[in-house]
Amino acid sequence: MNRGSRLPTASFCVLALLAGSALPAQATLFCEVLKTKDGFVALRDKPSTKSKVLRRLTVGEDVQIDSTRKETGGWAPVIYTGNDRSKNVIGWVRGSLISNECG
After folding, report:
1. Which region among 25-34, 73-82, 86-95 has the lowest average model confidence (pLDDT)?
2. Which domain holds residue 41?
3. Structural domains counted in the chain
4. How far apart are alpha carbons 33 and 61 in whole angstroms?
5. What CATH number is attached to the domain comprising 71?
6. 66 within domain boundaries
7. Is residue 5 part of a domain?
């Protein structure tokens, strides 16, 4: 067996593992929009019912909890990417209007 040919592979694996462990751990939680009497949940610019509505989210759509911001007065900071996942919309939704079983 030629040990010289095995060492670069083993070294590469160790370096790859070390590099992977150096990346910051960040939880990504997706929560489902719940059913409302209006048939939609307003994704707002700011955590207020008087704030501009950016999108109307329908039952079953997913929003991602924005871990870089904190919940404020019952409003959850979220990122909405839509079905095509092409554009992120950053905003706020009432926490009671999204599933508390996020994953």
Report:
1. 25-34
2. 25-97
3. 1
4. 5
5. 2.30.30.40
6. yes
7. no
Q: Looking at residue 28, what is its pLDDT? A: 65
Residue 37 lies in a domain: yes
Provide the 10 A C-beta neighbour count for residue 16.
10
More confident residue, 86 or 34: 34
DSSP state of 96: G
Sheet holding 62-65, edge to edge: 30-32, 62-65, 75-80, 89-94, 41-44, 53-57
pTM of structure: 0.70
pLDDT tens, residue by residue, 11-59: 333 323 333 333 233 336 899 999 999 999 999 999 999 999 999 999 9
Those residues whose C-beta lies under 8 Å from the C-beta of residue 63, and which sit 6 or more positions away, are 30, 31, 33, 43, 57, 76, 78, 79, 80, 93, 98
Tokens of 72: 């404020």
